[in-house]
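SAMPLE LOG
Freezer: B-3
Tube label: C17
Construct: single chain, 481 aa
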Amino acid sequence: MGNRFKSFSAKIALGYIILLVVSFLVVGFSFHGLVTKFLVRDAQDSLLREGEAMMEAAALQPPGNAGMGMGPRGSHGHGPGHGGRRRLVLGTRLVQGDYIFTDLDLNIMDSSRPDLFPINSTVTGPIGDVLLKERLTPGSGLRFSTGDFVAVALPAAGAGSEVSGILILLAAVDIVEGISWEIARLLLIILAAASLLGILLALALGRSISRPLGFLKKKARDMASRDFSHKVDIRTGDEMEELGEAFDLMREKLMEYDAAQRRFLQNASHELKTPLMSIQGYAEAVKDGVVDGEEEVDRSMDVVIRESQRLKDMVEDIIFLSKLENFEEQYDYNEVEIEELLHEAVESVQGFAGDRGITLRFSPDTMTSLYCDGEKMLRVFVNILGNAVNHASDEVAISVEQAGDGCKVIFQDDGEGFTEKDLDRLFDRFYKGSGGGSGLGMAIARTIVGNHGGGITADNTDMGARVVVLLPGGVKMKGQI
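STRUCTURE (predicted):
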């Protein structure tokens, strides 16, 4: 298939990889953001639980215990401090947290990290800014985050249930982000494994599609070389199999068309050769003096003229049929009376039928109007009627019947009927049957009717041969004559 990156399977795989990468990036960043938010919320919940536990423990301690005062560690009071770092459950892990106990002016009275939050100093920075803006009431709690910490603040109630201090619990943001990135790395490993599996599946899918396409390409090249011998057989159970069936139908049609063209050339050369040989023979006889006497010369010239006219008519029929089949012939549609066209056809064939002793019987009791090319439809009726006269014994009957929105024109003769060979090849070009002319008339008739959207059928009845012309909608039956 040439360059791999230009192959169909490679394009599918590349597109699939790009889709996976984009999807995984979107999922990864979104998941990381959601996990971080969840961990922050979980850390704050854990800090709140720890803070509430500290407040309850402080309430149970008897006055005078060390580490429980409102002042510095070791003084006496009602503060909740326990003097150590706190253990928090974050996700499924235990992490370290810290606390600060301040008065209402944010002066630090106790701290688990004196190195960061010295006792007797004041809480400043982002934490201080948040606490100064928010007013804590008994029973309330405050969640907030800064650039360095995830934190909660709880009011400490003094005598009379009034807020007398603030308990601040903190967890470093680095801890939360570290856990989040660990989860992200795990997700990345899972996505990488899924991507690898997806790429393998994409390559397999691409090959499953490109293999039958390559097969179709080879068959197309074979058909371009006029090799129609091999059937196109694709078994995939999907649209690709339907494409293969359509391709095989095209192969059969092209094979039939190619065979028809070969027959056409063979038949055309044979049919054209016959009058040409006759013309050549009589012309040479006159030139060489083989034909003596003025009467014989005139008779020879009559033959030459007659055969020349037959040759001319045949060539014109071939050209006309070729134009019809290639849709080069223009159609002039008008509303015409089918019965009038049939009357004209009867008049055109009457002399020929009389010479053969054949009666043409046509007595319509309705008038049927149809939008069609009247001149070409007249040629259809003349060709079919002439063919019927050739096969009739005594008469040919013509009738018109309505068929749904259209009509049927029936030509029935009383001859011996069509042979099996006639029925198979009646509408083939240059097929003459038992008594035909050029063999193009019925082929021309079928093509004209087909281009009008209709059809022609031929069969045998108890009376003889029958040809039915079915013309589609646009037909209007008028009143009785």
